[in-house]
Amino acid sequence: MSNSTNRKFRFVFAIWWLIWFAVHYSVLLNYGITQLQAFADSFISNILLAGCCLLIINNMRYYLPRREKYWYVLAMSFGLACLWLVATRLLLWAFFKNENTYLAMVSSSSTIRYAVAFLIFGCMATLCLLWYTQKEQKEMDARKTEAENLAKEAELYKLRQQLQPHFLFNSLNSISALVNVQPEQARKMVHQLSDFLRGTLKKEEHQLVNLEEEFQYLELYLDIEKVRFGHRLSANVECEDECRQLKLPPLLLQPVVENAIKFGLYDTTDDVTITIDAKKTENNLVVRVTNPFDPETCNPKQGVGFGLSSVQRRLYLLFARNDLLQTKAENNLFITIVKIPQVNA
Amino acid sequence: MKVLIIDDEPLARIIVKEYLQAYPQIEIAQECNDGFEGIKAIQQHQPDLIFLDIQMPKINGFEMLELIDNPPAVIFTTAFDEYAIKAFESHAVDYLLKPFSKERFDKALQKWMESNNANAKTNTQSLLESVSHSPMQNNRIVVKLAGKIKIIPVDEIFYLEAADDYVKVFTKEGSFLKNKTMNYFENTLDAQHFVRTHRSYILNVQLITRIEPYEKDSHLAILKSGAQVPVSKTGYAKLKQVLGL
Questions:
Q1: Which domain holds residue A326?
Q2: pTM for this predicted structure
């Protein structure tokens, strides 16, 4: 509850009890008791009533009944009203021990007192129930909208990543250059690029693919990059036979290799060799991607790069583990290790 | 007229070369693979125009231009760079988005030939200034030191000190001069990590070990390296805010 609604509530609450106090007092005066008695009676009854109401509010704020809420309201009103009546009568008795006419009046009006208290507590509890349920609903809606927005953003980001504008435009530019000098090569690259794009489009997030398939796709990607960067880029792909049929999420490795290529090509001016190898250990498929880097200008401890964080996120969403993507630097080599658990392999 | 082509993709250079064949008056002085070669070639050939890619090994196109004292007219050739394109559009320097057609290339060249050379150079300067108002993309600073180029990752900076028209960048390897202003660094460095604590100082808050009172209203920040950096009254308020005190 914000501060201003809080203050407003307190104000209304106090006004309400003042009015109720006045009504109570004037009604009692008609029963032939002294002003002092009427005043004390009204004051004690209403202070205790107000106290019980605050108790209900606090109870509902921290504990909102889920099931049987109406029985809960009923039982609470019933119980509190009993307690209230006993407490009020004890206090009044203590104050006016010897004034028998007054005490007789208190006794005879017990039923009506009880009924009023029961009604007030019932109303209060129902109001609280509605108020806090609605508030909870609002919070839940806000959370839901937030979650939806996050999901949308992620979706958009994924789409943009899939399209890879930088890669696409540079490849098209290479084709444009090749058309004149090596038309055959240009045509081949158009085919490779088409296959690559088709690959990014058709894959479904939750369908696992064979490592063999993913490696073919990587080769395609590497071939295109090799045309772009010429002799500067070379790649070694090694895969043990027993790994070929192991499963992994589609397009998982491409961002890792892309990161390695960018890292390698943009961090050194020398020729760059990217090594990719796959092994099976225990129940995991382990893929290592290695690229050279310059330890003087680059700080690999800065951790997982931009491209890699999306891979890590994906692995986390799929396997609920954060230790599946690791990076380390050895001499001038940057190594990215991806572990993919083999579920019911 | 002499031109240079600076691009790390051989095929991208081939295209520019091919399109340039239609201009016999233009001589391609050299083709460069990266920014380092580019800097050397510019000093050696003093070209009238360069074709420059942005994403290149080690240092990018903008960083290369920053290291040249009197940069020539530039036509940028780039594939996709939203942030850079904004900078291009607000300045008369032309840019070619890859892949570009012969017609588009001719237009860019026409534009350059019509503008006088001095004009094109001023445009390069103002372009660099406008690019420098956006937050730093690479988190590094490129400086020249005795003819060599040094790349300093931003988180290795201890602090920055104003020095006339330059800024002194202090790192564990000593200090380097960069021809930028304090305002430039204040605007582009990550404000959560670098605070301008004084008119002449910006410091890396992650390296502060303690802050001591010093004279009236001012303080001294002691860094891990032992360096003492003055903190003015307003600087102290900023520092407290960033550190959450």
A1: 207-341
A2: 0.65
